[in-house]
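Quick board copy: two proteins, each given as sequence then tokens.
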Amino acid sequence: GYATALFGKWHCGYENKFNPVHLGFNEFVGFLHGGADYHLHGAWRNGLETQDVKGYSTDIITDKSVDFIKRHKDTPFFLYVAHQAVHNPYQTRDDTPEKREPGWKPNAVNEVNRLRYQRILEDLDQSVGKVLDTVSQLGLAQDTLVFFWSDNGDVRMSPAERPFRGGKFSHYEGGHRVPAVAWWPGKIRAGTKSDALLAGFDLFPTLTEIAGISKDNPPHLDGISAKDHFLHGKPMAARDLFFGYEPKLGTAMRHGDWKMILKGDDLQLYNLKADLKETTNVANANPDTTALMRQAIERFKQTVTPGS
């Protein structure tokens, strides 16, 4: 079997029953909150035990990851490197508690923190490099798929104009359309680009199929495997995608180039091929598509309601 580990953020429940060690991971060192101090780790967990892990978050997660790879270089392994960076608070390696200026707002999106954000991002980049270097130096690159992605979109730290509407905590494209990189020398051709639509829940069926254990997948998964797309460039299967945050943001749906956002009585329909920035609600001009997608969203919401 595979040795498994998760180092970093696990924002999927605070009770022990939700701990990663009960959900398929042999090792876990990290935190359970959405955001946390980069230097003060009194609430971190080592497995099920609360442990004050000393150091800077990015360094801890990187060092734990590199050590895990070295310890398991001769056996199959699955490693989830769940970095805290670049989430707020925007604390660099130098922003130790005793150096923080009174009145400084570490969660604010402003010019003071924009330079810090850049340094935090550079540290993340260095971390990714160390992990990839370790894989290569141990001679594991040909046998290791590395997948890098972000869990949400823009937080307005970049002064550059973006092509998308909205940002984090939004159903608009700026909230969730993020780049991703799949790296597997000898299997995935370098420089290949794809505009295929993938979601985070596609990773599980993709990885289990690559590992040859997909027959054990639970039924009715939300995601589909991207193995043939990654390895052979085959198109992803056509499907409708649903994502939501009820009741704050409502529920959204992708149907080909069509995108619907439904929150209570507020219904918005966009054609992303013609209007990527989602500037014009075309629901009234497309009554058939609007009715079809609205009905599909309502059916989807029923399937994810407790007891359904």
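And the next:
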Amino acid sequence: MNTTAPKLGAIDLNLLVVFDAIMRDRSVTRAGQRLGLSQPAMSHALTRLRHMLKDELFVRSPNGMMPTPRAEQLATPIRIALDGLQESLEPVRFDPVEATATFRVAVDNYAAIVLVAPIAAHVSRIAPGVTLDFRPSGTLNVPELLDRSELHLAIGPSSAHGERFSLRRLLQDQFVVVHRKGHPAAKAREFSTEKLAALPQLEISSAQFGPEFVETGPGRPKSAPKPAMRAPFLSAAQILATSDLVSVLPLNVARNLTRSHHLVFRRLSRSPKPIEATMMWLRRLDNQPAHAWLRDVISNVTQGLHSS
């Protein structure tokens, strides 16, 4: 087997761009559409890649073009190299008024409900040519997509994913009890854990921001009461407005609901563990002008949403 690496001067950069596109799309056809190349041109480029790297690289399967172990090994270094080259060709400053960039952002349920609308509204005002592509993160492998530059950043709960990522906490939100106006239990200004446990509760089945109740006695943890009903978030406001069910939700989610429905919220005398929204991105993009602009915009927008 020939193990001699190809000389850098003999490598056609366009072939690496083709490799990266097929790696992203798992399809020669879709990769060609991404690059504006015909099917014969893509097939010819793939043949040259295989000859140059002495490996099949991609194998057809029912799920598309599956990368070989060698292709998997090459994917991240090639993506980093292409990103670095692209960044070196970009202006040293980012002008949002003139920019026509697209940013792909993964968001969890909390961020989708609370943060996406104000971020989108602000960006549309100050950067009319910028496109925001928000993607639900629930079924995504976020670290892998960040590594492959298929996402620019992600907003969700804080978690450790390795030193290659940077994190910035955007928001910490307390939980409150939401119920209809005129609810029999509405006289109190706040709810105790015991009072809450005695009420029929609605649990949001489509969201991952359920409260984690803290212990209520010496050495005796208190778990969340069993819900009387589970329903998707899209149904929650109407259910709460037309029943005696209550729901424990983050404060900023509750504020959104009470603006458009006959609902109110009350504080908990002992709040569950707060929910956090954290921004995560590749550390190597810390000083990239367009990326830094987006992060600052998101941070500034969320400043006005902090729980009071």
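Board note added afterward: Confidence is low (pLDDT under 50) at residues 214-221.
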